[in-house]
Amino acid sequence: MDDTEDQGPADDAILELAEQPLGSLHRPLSQVVADAIRQAIVGGQFTPGMRLVEDRLAAKFGVSRNPVREAVRALAAEGLITVVPRHGAVVADLSAEEVRETVEVRATLEGMNARLAARHCDQAVVRRLHDILAAGLAAVRSAQVGALPVLNAQFHDTLGSAGRNRVLTDLLRTLRERTGHFFPTGGPDHAVKTWNEHAEILNAVVAGDEELASLLAQRHVKSAEATAATDQ
Question: Which of 12, 122, 141, 201 is the most buried (most CB within 10 A)?
Answer without folding.
Answer: 201
